[in-house]
Specification:
It is a single chain. The chain is mainly alpha-helical and about 70 residues long. The protein has one domain. Helices cover about 65% and strands about 0% of the residues. It contains four helices and no strands. Helix 3 packs antiparallel against helix 4. The longest helix has 26 residues.
């Protein structure tokens, strides 16, 4: 899992006091998939606006979002 996801889960209370450790592999995969689907939906919303956008450092918002959350195609 991407460290950013793990950090967000901690802030949501999901990793506090062993909650994450108590989940079985199916539950963990479901939570990871849920987070991934949210990120992909955000990317889909931003995509039409970001087609011609570039950051000053030559990056692109969609590429930056994918990197930030560790999302692969």
């Amino acid at each position: 899992m991407d460290q950013r996801f793990e950090s967000l889960m901690y802030h949501a209370g999901m990793t506090a006091q062993g909650c994450w450790d108590e989940m079985d592999s199916y539950q963990r995969e479901a939570v990871e998939k849920f987070a991934l689907l949210i990120v992909r939906e955000c990317i889909d919303i931003v995509s039409p606006y970001a087609l011609r956008m570039e950051n000053f450092d030559g990056g692109h918002p969609i590429v930056d979002l994918k990197k930030h959350f560790g999302v692969e195609e």
